[in-house]
Amino acid sequence: MKKLILLLILTMGVGAGQFDKVKITPELSYIYVYHKGKAIKVHRIQDTKHKLTGEYAKQYRPGQDIQPIKMHKDIQTIGEVELLHFMKIKGNNKTGVLVDLRPRKAHNRESIPSSVNIPASTKDDKVKLEKILKVFGAKRLDDGSLDTSKVMQVAFYCNGLWCDKAPKFIKTFLELGYPAEKMLYYRGGFQMWKILGFTTVTNL
Amino acid sequence: MKFFYITIFLVSTILANAKVVDIVEGMSYVKIKANGKTYKIKRTQDKDAYLTNTFALTSRPSPPFFIEPFSIHNEVETYGELEVLDFLVEKEGVFIDARLENWYAKSAIPAAVNIPFKLFLTKSKKRDKILKKLGAIRNEEGTWNFTEAKTILLYCNGAWCGQSPTAIKALLTIGYPANKMKYYRGGMQAWQLLGLTTIVPKEKK
Question: Which of A163, A195, A198 to mutate to test the interface with B (most CBs of B within 10 A)?
Answer without folding.
Answer: A195
